[in-house]
Amino acid sequence: MSQSTTVLFGLPGVRVQRVERDESGGRVVHVETAADTAAAGCPGCGVVSTSVKQNVITAPRDLPYGEGGISVVWHKTRWRCVEATCARVSFTEAIGEVPAGMRTTGRLRRAMGAAVGDACRSVAEVAGAFAVSWPTAHASFVEHADTLLTRPEPTRVLGIDETRRGKPRWVRDSDTGPWLRIDPYDTQCMLMRWAPGRWSDPSLRGRTRRA
């Protein structure tokens, strides 16, 4: 397959072998690990292996392209680690877009994360549009959010608000005899920002505390 097909496919770390049609008319893109990657390096010790254990095939899900969509078939190698001091016996090729153990490409996960986080689409809708499960789409959103969110500023003031609900109740103390009033309360914690000088308000004394 010509280099232009690999450029058109555009997934870093792999080279297109061939493209064919499946029984339903969909396109199947067969790829192999590009020679200029460090995929033959052992993830345990970093030593590049030259001992092939077996050839394996995986099918990571990728971005849809066109009305018919595409399927990716990755032909990769399982290597033996020949380093005597390494605990790893063997390892399978992995690239940045498809790390070890992942069944989706990085560009697919980024697209799903942006669809939920930036376009405000529901996780269920995005999962259906990209033909993945709900947990996969949600995990992509979490990954997308982690790259954007920063550590929040320290809480300046923590307020506790107690609101009585319902009618007061009266119960008799079994030991001393007098009636006691019992009011059901809802307690809520709120993060608040106060204007300068607000702490001098007598009505707030005893009800708030600096964080």
Brief summary of the model shown:
With 211 residues, the protein is an alpha+beta fold.
Q: How does this structure look, described?
A:
By secondary structure, this protein is of the alpha+beta class. It has three domains: about 1-100, no CATH class; about 105-150; about 155-210, no CATH class. It contains four helices and ten strands; from the N terminus they run αβββββαααβββββ. The chain has helices at about 5-10, 105-115, 125-130, 135-150, and strands at about 15-20, 25-35, 50-60, 70-80, 90, 155-165, 170, 180, 185-190, 210. The strands form three sheets. Strands 1, 2, 3, 4 and 5 form a five-stranded mixed beta sheet that branches. Strand 1 (about 15-20) and strand 2 (about 25-35) form a beta hairpin. The protein is elongated, with a radius of gyration of 30 Å.
